[in-house]
Specification:
Layout lengths: L1 H24 L2 H9 L2 H24 L3 H14 L1 H15 L3 H6 L3 H8 L6
């Protein structure tokens, strides 16, 4: 998991610097129409929001608390994959080397019980 933690630290840092640059130097009233008038700009937005939907689906699956789910989805909409990178980092540490716990979250026990194959003696 160390490699993945390193990768997601890099992702989070890249997103922090990129978002900071956009908030400081960007002007959506000028750049937004240019983005929306470009086919690649539209495709990038469709890809972004599809990715947010896919990632949010994973959050809904693995979390139990509706408040946490709601806050995370709002943060995904506001900050995109910065939120995703931090969520992944948090859960890599929380899983403590257990990939099933990382991917399944609160559903881990139920999924393992449902899909475990009985041992023959």
């Amino acid at each position: 998991m160390k490699y993945f933690k390193f990768v997601y630290y890099l992702c989070a840092l890249a997103m922090i610097f990129s978002l900071g640059n956009v908030f400081i130097n960007g002007d959506f009233s000028i750049e937004g129409p240019a983005l929306l008038s470009n086919n690649w700009g539209i495709m990038s937005l469709v890809d972004l929001f599809a990715g947010i939907l896919v990632f949010s689906t994973w959050i809904v699956f693995r979390e139990d608390n509706p408040l946490i789910i709601g806050v995370l989805i709002v943060l995904m909409g506001l900050f995109g994959f910065l939120t995703a990178s931090l969520y992944i980092l948090f859960n890599l540490y929380k899983a403590d080397g257990d990939w099933a716990k990382f991917f399944l979250g609160s559903k881990r026990k139920a999924v393992i019980e449902k899909w475990s194959i009985p041992k023959k003696h």
